[in-house]
Amino acid sequence: MNQQALSSFIWSVADLLRGDYKQSDYGKVILPLTVLRRLDCVLEETKSKVLAEYEKRKDAGVNLEPFLLKKSGLTFYNTSPMDLKKLMGDPDNIGPNLYSYIDAFSEPVRDIFAKFDFYNQIDRLAKAKLLYLVVEKFANVDLHPDRVSNAQMGLAFEELIRKFAELSNETAGEHFTPREVIRLMVDLIFIEDDDELSKPNLVRTLYDPTAGTGAVQEKEKAFLREIIRKVNDLFDGELTDGDQLVYVNNVLKGKMLESETLAEQARNNTKQQFSNSPDLGKALTDAIIDAMDAHNTMSTQALNSDKIKRGLLDILLGPAKLYETLRETPPVEGAL
């Protein structure tokens, strides 16, 4: 399901609300139910394990949360045997059952719905005889991550926020960050720390205190996924994604960032001109040789294959952003 189809479907719920809700209040129903259905789908695969663990330990007098989180494999869980589809089996008790289902989530998720003030909307929908119809709409859409990625979900959510902002005579930018700004932010984040991040075996955490839909994190992950996707087509053997990512994005790129010659050429040439520099290929070969002891399998394959070396250069000049990083490197004082 693409983002446009998803946001169009969710927006169709507004047809049910028209007359009983002001347009500016549609978001009070649609946004929390979108979140609820997403969580519902995400928990689907491990729900039975969580329920079994809950039944096993609920009378043991221990803190259940660590056990349930482990079975969930996520940062949240739900201990109700219900889900949105099962709620549809009892129309007469849809309100109490929906309350019970939400209350069975772990505390951080319950807090989300409390901040949405969603319980008041459940009562309001029930009084208008709309609760079953609205929940049924969401129960019949598949928002599992295998069908709708985190990036698609974020885009759809932002589209809904934009529409609700327009209906409320607000500026959508007050509620989310435009994508072009996100791209700039992520580029700036990498530029400042590229020297550090190029060191082998270094781990850094990106903290976004106003994460919103997670678009910044998704953009960062997209860079790394693109590197992994391309590297997987180059090397043979039992190599993990992590091994290959470190080899290209940390080891090779880190060594090439030490070259003042490359940095000077990057600062004074276009990317196309820089990519044709004979010094670029030589620097890559030197970096591969230097990495031979620690990464013998990949370095050996690279040295014996022009195709692999061309592929590595494509990655380094593409998602690994070697050129952009070199351009931002300050000149070494006294260097020619």
Descriptive notes:
The protein folds into two domains: 3-43 and 78-174; 180-327, no CATH class. The protein is mainly alpha-helical. The mean pLDDT is 83. The chain is built from 20 helices and no strands. It has helices spanning 3-11, 14-17, 27-42, 47-57, 65-72, 84-87, 94-103, 107-115, 118-127, 131-139, 150-167, 179-197, 215-232, 241-256, 260-268, 271-275, 278-290, 296-303, 306-317, 322-327. 64% of the residues lie in helices and 0% in strands.
Q: Given the structure, what is the number of helices?
A: 20
The oligomeric state of the chains shown is: single chain
Q: Strand-residue fraction? A: under 5%
Radius of gyration: 26 Å
Kindly give the count of domains. 2
Main sheet summary: none
**Overall geometric form:** elongated
| Mean pLDDT over all positions | 83
Number of strands: 0
Give the % helix. Answer: 55-70%
**Strand-pairing-aware structural class:** mainly alpha
What's the order of the H and E elements? Answer: HHHHHHHHHHHHHHHHHHHH
Terminus-to-terminus distance: 55 Å
* Residue windows where pLDDT falls under 50 for at least 5 positions: none
Question: How is this structure best summarized?
Answer:
The protein has 336 residues and is mainly α. The protein has 20 helices and no strands. The longest helix has 19 residues, at 179-197.
Secondary-structure blueprint:
Layout: H1 3-11, H2 14-17, H3 27-42, H4 47-57, H5 65-72, H6 84-87, H7 94-103, H8 107-115, H9 118-127, H10 131-139, H11 150-167, H12 179-197, H13 215-232, H14 241-256, H15 260-268, H16 271-275, H17 278-290, H18 296-303, H19 306-317, H20 322-327
Helix pairs in contact: 1-11, 4-5, 12-13, 13-14, 14-17
